Amino acid sequence: MTGVLATLNLGVERRGPWTGVGRSGIDKRPVDHRVMARTWGLEGDLIADKRVHGGPDKAVYAFAREDAVFWEKELGRECAPGNFGENFSTVGMDITGAEVGEQWAIGGAVFEVIRARKPCRVFAGFWDVPDLVKRFIAHGAPGAYLRVLQEGAVGAGDPIEIINRPGHGVTIGYMLRALTTEPHLMPRFLDAPEMLPKHHEKARKWLATHQQETPAR
After folding, report:
1. What distance lies between CA 148 and its chain's CA centroid?
2. Where are the chain's structural domains?
3. What is the mean pLDDT of each run of 10 residues along the chain (217 residues)?
């Protein structure tokens, strides 16, 4: 499967009572130049609160333009590329169906799908939709955070090629459901060795708590 990086978006500073730390980089805007993808993120991207954003396990956030269409209809307004706080606006990619550990080649870089995005109050505040977090989770198409496995330059128009798919079936959509509304799904995290250790630990804790109801692994 090959998709396209429709736009590459970098954060600009926004201020408001909803930002938490006084400013936010959630407002991403398309750029027309190529950008170096580093292990810690994209050069030139604004990360205001590094406690919860950026870093190797949240280096890049990807969101499909096909999923943006739903929100345009749902809210009756335009959702331009970058409005979801995404660095990569993609076309032709089933991000919700991407498996944790899936690898994408884009431009001169290689990325790994590592976790689902869990929306926060900053996102709701930026959109001025108070119940957005609940609605976003319910819709179940959260986009994905990517690791940078191979640093390189990327830019709008680059093809996105899936070069490795683990085959365990633990997808971004599945992960969101397990971490939010359906925790009984978490044991399958252990079938995905590429998943972050903290998510494996969540699965083990759930199993330990429910060992009388769930067969031991």
Report:
1. 13
2. 2-209
3. 92 83 87 97 88 88 97 95 96 98 98 94 89 95 98 98 98 98 97 97 95 54
- HEC assignment per residue over the chain: CEEEEEEEEEEEEECCHHHCCCCEEEEEEEECCCEEEECCEECCCCCCCCCCCCCHHHCEEEEEHHHHHHHHHHHCCCCCCCCCCCCEEEECCCCCCCECCCEEEECCEEEEEEEECCCCHHHHHHHCCCCHHHHHHHHCCCCEEEEEEECEEECCCCEEEEEECCCCCCEHHHHHHHHCCCHHHHHHHHHCCCCCHHHHHHHHHHHHHCCCCCCCC
The pair of three-digit structure tokens given for residue 137, joined into one six-digit string: 């989770």
Q: Are 98 and 185 in contact (CB under 8 A)?
A: no
| Both tokens assigned to 23 | 């400013």
> 24 forms bridges with which residues in the sheet?
14
Distance CA 104, CA 46 (A): 23
Cα dist from 79 to 28, 76, 87, 135, 158, whole Å: 12, 9, 14, 16, 22
How far apart are alpha carbons 196 and 164 in whole angstroms?
A: 18
Q: Say whether domain 2-209 belongs to CATH 2.40.33.20.
A: yes
CA distance 61 to 158: 16
Rounded to 10 deg, the angle between the 132-139 and 65-75 helix axes is 130
